[in-house]
Amino acid sequence: MNPRISMITLGVHDLQKSIEFYEKGLGFPRMESPPEVAFFTLNGTWLGLYGHDALAEDATVSPEGSGFSAVTLAHNVHSEAEVEEVLKQAVAAGATVLKEAQKVFWGGYHGYFKDLDGHLWEIAHNPFFWVGPEDQAE
After folding, report:
1. Domain 1-61 matches domain 71-138 at the CATH topology level
2. Across residues 92-100, what is the average pLDDT?
3. pLDDT tens readout for residues 108-130
4. 1-61 has which fold?
5. d(CA 50, CA 22)
6. Burial class (CB in 10 A: 0-12, 13-18, 19+), 90
7. Tens digit of pLDDT for each residue in 46-58?
8. Nearest 5°: CA angle at 64, between 31 and 7?
C-alpha cells in the first residue's frame, strides 16, 4: 500500500453553513460537486462535507453520540504569527477557540479551534521540520 490520506469527510449538521465556513470563512477552494456534498482541494488531499446522519448511515454506524471523537485535524504553518492569523480567521468565520495559540512542551507553537460541528483543528508551527506537501516547504 502507498500510504496517504486521499480525502477526509466530515459529517455536518447544516451543509450550507459548513460550506460557507470552509469556503468563505477559511478560503478553502471548493470544487464542483453534487448538491448533497461539498468537496474542497487541500494541496494533495480533499476535504468532503456530507450530512452527519447520512455519513453515519453510509458507514453503518449510529449517528447518536457526542463528546471527543478521538480525532483532530492538523494544519501546519510556517510561523507563530501565522498560527495566530489562522486562528483569528477561523473565529471570524464562526469557529470557537478551544486553546489559545501558545508555546508547546515539544518546542513548537499551536492552538486549537472547533468548527461549526465541533470538529477539532490544531493550527501548529513546528520549528524543527515541515509537515506538509514538499512544494510548500520553505
Report:
1. yes
2. 96
3. 999 999 999 999 999 999 999 88
4. 2,3-Dihydroxybiphenyl 1,2-Dioxygenase; domain 1 (3.10.180)
5. 13
6. buried
7. 999 999 999 988 7
8. 25
